[in-house]
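Query structure, 125 tokens:
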């Protein structure tokens, strides 16, 4: 085999490897993006209605989405803090919460909780 043929084989092999790596990266990113989107928009409650418990949370209108996500996670209202943060960002209720103390239950969907703290009448303690 001549030098020219060897270089051609190496060049084709390198191109095939680069293309395969690119396809693998696109597959991984696509799978991650699909899973994240599915988790954000296919909401689930932490508990079902037979195991639900009531939890009080105090919200101020100055709280950021990250602070609300952290509070709800610490209180056990949501299973994953970062996922709930993304749900807040993607919702119509981002930053529109009202000051007050709210009683929420662990069988509520995340969007229902956001709706409750955005439009519910508050209780004073």
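Result returned for the query:
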């Amino acid at each position: 085999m001549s030098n020219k043929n060897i270089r051609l084989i190496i060049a084709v092999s390198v191109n095939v490897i680069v293309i395969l790596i690119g396809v693998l990266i696109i597959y991984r990113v696509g799978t991650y993006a699909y899973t994240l989107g599915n988790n954000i928009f296919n909401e689930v409650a932490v508990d079902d209605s037979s195991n639900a418990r009531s939890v009080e949370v105090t919200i101020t209108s100055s709280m950021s989405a990250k602070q609300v996500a952290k509070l709800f996670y610490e209180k056990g209202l949501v299973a994953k803090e970062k996922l709930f943060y993304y749900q807040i960002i993607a919702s119509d209720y981002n930053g529109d919460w009202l000051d007050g103390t709210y009683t929420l239950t662990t069988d509520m969907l995340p969007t229902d909780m956001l709706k409750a703290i955005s439009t519910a009448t508050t209780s004073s303690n």
